[in-house]
Design goal:
about 240 residues, 14 strands, about 25% helix, 6 helices, alpha+beta, BirA Bifunctional Protein, domain 2
């Protein structure tokens, strides 16, 4: 069931509270017109102007396939959302590991997946999706944001877009998956694959070439040596840029 909230601190918080209270079901979704304390990866805040963007959380019961391959769940979701944006805009979108949505070198959105366990059993996944839709100005603290309106000059309705994404994502996650096809789809969209990038680990910055993501969700790179990083182990070094369009 798809519901619309006028204002909420975080759609993921809202969904998680309902899950914890036993009031959520598989496929329930909440779209917010305004989110005043949105969450991003690594404790970051997702800033969004009211009424301008797609803010959506969906509750999912992971299938047996994803129970066996939990890292592939994130990859499947990110690939499906990137495909959706490509189909809507007719532009190429990439996934910056682990789950930022990029157009060229600009961040159009991101995904935050939070999980709920009962003992060792993975019971629920809350998929939080934020996409810049109509917003034209962003805080100066954000180095490289872009909205769909800046990519494609046309009328976008965030709620209608969210309903369409919700329908396609639910349908997409119901298909039968193979590990190799999920990995291939994700790696084919991997941002900066085969290119040198700047990464930061602790206080150390270094340059390395993006290789691939493995079945555990780890990033493989190479320079003077082969490197493997788990999520949260390194940060990207992103340089601010001016608008391209």
């Amino acid at each position: 069931m798809f519901r619309v909230l006028d204002s909420v601190d975080s759609t993921n918080n809202y969904a998680m509270e309902l899950v914890q209270d036993g009031l959520a079901n598989h496929g329930d979704a909440w779209f917010a017109k305004e989110q005043f304390s949105g969450k991003g990866q690594r404790g970051k805040i997702w800033k969004s102007t009211a009424g301008m963007n797609l803010i959506l959380s969906i509750v999912i019961t992971p299938t047996p396939f994803f129970q066996q391959h939990p890292a592939l769940f994130n990859m499947a979701v990110a690939s499906l959302v990137a495909d959706f944006l490509q189909n809507e805009t007719k532009e190429k979108f990439c996934i910056k590991w682990p789950n930022d949505l990029y157009w060229n070198d600009r961040k159009a959105g991101g995904i935050l997946i939070e999980n709920r366990f009962s003992g060792p059993e993975w019971k629920w996944a809350i998929i939080g999706i934020g996409i810049n839709v109509k917003q034209m100005q962003f805080p100066s603290s954000l180095p490289n944001p872009v909205s769909l309106c800046q990519i494609k000059s046309r009328e976008w309705d965030p709620e209608a877009l969210a309903r369409k994404l919700y329908s396609q994502l639910i349908k997409g996650l119901e298909q039968k998956f193979l590990a190799k096809t999920v990995l291939s789809a994700y790696n084919n969209k991997l941002y900066k694959k085969g290119q040198e990038v700047g990464l930061k680990k602790g206080n150390t910055r270094f340059t390395t070439t993006i290789g691939h993501i493995d079945g555990l969700g780890q990033l493989h790179t190479h320079d003077v040596m082969d490197r493997v990083f788990a999520f949260g182990e390194v940060e990207w070094v992103i340089r601010p840029h001016s608008l391209i369009r």
